[in-house]
């Protein structure tokens, strides 16, 4: 008995490769490869590179996180805030020659349920005044000013972060401004948000950000004659003379080590 061609046992034709559908790349694998391609920012745990690293994380490689702007729509009330701010700033720019939204805010990031507007430092007062005064925005209160130091971000090592609250609309947003180590100047917002007074002093004390226009930019946490700004990443971890009872904090490579 005969059988159709190719139907004999063991003579089945293999499937043509062109008939197989291409497999979509794994997004997690792509993200991992992109992350590994980023520049290594530091190694080890807690920034230590000496024998004082007893954490067991000496081989850890911390890579620079990419700064990626969030696409529209942002979600929640964030689109409404961005549109209202853009309309108010662009209208003022057209009428009185002020700063436009695109010139003042080059990047918008939505992450962990928060909206962050990255503001060019020279335009910070104009953006803050618009957020405070426009009826569709009314961010009446600044809850604080935080400093961050990223030594690997050449030209933008110092960051100042402002938390704004709209009591009228029950909304919160963040403003983030950068300045280089070589020119650590950011305009003060005390004239717009008086609550920034002590917060800006604390940020200057710990990070060295100079807030231009502040009336009393003096130490608020450290002694008046303290040298340096202790929360910067390039500040030494130890070996600093302490003025109380003549105590000294030893540097990491001279501390007790456990084998």
Verbal overview:
It is built from 5 helices and 9 strands. The protein has a domain of 159 residues: NADH:ubiquinone oxidoreductase Nqo5 subunit (Beta Polymerase, domain 2, 2-Layer Sandwich), CATH 3.30.460.80. It has a 5-stranded mixed beta sheet with strand order 3-4-7-6-5. It has a two-stranded antiparallel sheet with strand order 1-2. It has a two-stranded parallel ribbon with strand order 8-9. It is α/β, with parallel strands linked by helices. It starts with 26 loop residues before the first helix and ends in a 47-residue tail after the last strand.
Present the secondary structure layout.
Layout: H1 27-36, E1 40-43, E2 61-63, H2 78-96, H3 101-104, E3 107-111, E4 114-118, H4 124-133, E5 141-149, E6 158-166, E7 171-179, E8 185-187, H5 196-207, E9 210-212
Parallel strand pairs: 4-7, 8-9
Antiparallel strand pairs: 1-2, 3-4, 5-6, 6-7
Q: Gist?
A:
The chain is of the alpha/beta class and 259 residues long. The protein is built from five helices and nine strands.
Q: Describe the global form.
A: flat
Mean pLDDT: 84
What is the CATH T-level topology of the domain at 65-223? Answer: Beta Polymerase, domain 2
SSE series: HEEHHEEHEEEEHE
Distance between the termini: 80 Å
Tell me the fraction of residues in β-strands, as a range: 15-25%
Radius of gyration: 27 Å
Structural class designation: alpha/beta
What is the helix tally? 5
- The overall strand count is 9
Main sheet characteristics: 5 strands, mixed
CATH architecture of the domain at 65-223: 2-Layer Sandwich
């Amino acid at each position: 008995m005969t059988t159709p061609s190719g139907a004999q046992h063991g003579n089945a034709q293999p499937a043509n490769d062109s008939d197989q559908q291409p497999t979509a790349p794994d997004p997690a694998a792509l993200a991992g490869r992109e992350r590994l391609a980023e520049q290594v920012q530091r190694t080890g745990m807690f920034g230590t590179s000496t024998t004082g690293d007893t954490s067991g994380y000496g081989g850890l490689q911390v890579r620079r996180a990419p700064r990626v702007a969030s696409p529209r729509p942002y979600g929640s009330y964030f689109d409404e805030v961005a549109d209202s701010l853009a309309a108010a700033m662009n209208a003022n720019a057209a009428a009185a020659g002020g700063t436009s939204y695109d010139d003042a805010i080059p990047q918008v990031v939505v992450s962990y349920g928060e909206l962050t507007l990255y503001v060019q430092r020279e335009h910070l007062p104009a953006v803050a005044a618009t957020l405070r005064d426009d009826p569709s925005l009314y961010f009446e209160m600044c809850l604080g000013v935080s400093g961050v130091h990223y030594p690997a971000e050449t030209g933008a090592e110092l960051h100042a972060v402002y938390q704004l609250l709209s009591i009228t609309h029950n909304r919160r947003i963040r403003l983030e401004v950068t300045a280089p180590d070589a020119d650590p100047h950011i305009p003060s917002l005390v004239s717009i948000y008086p609550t920034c007074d002590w917060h800006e002093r604390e940020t200057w004390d710990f990070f060295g950000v100079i807030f231009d226009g502040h009336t009393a930019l003096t130490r608020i946490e450290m002694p008046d004659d303290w040298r340096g700004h202790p929360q910067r990443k390039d500040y030494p971890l130890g070996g600093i003379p302490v003025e109380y009872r003549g105590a000294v904090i030893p540097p990491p490579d001279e501390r007790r080590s456990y084998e």
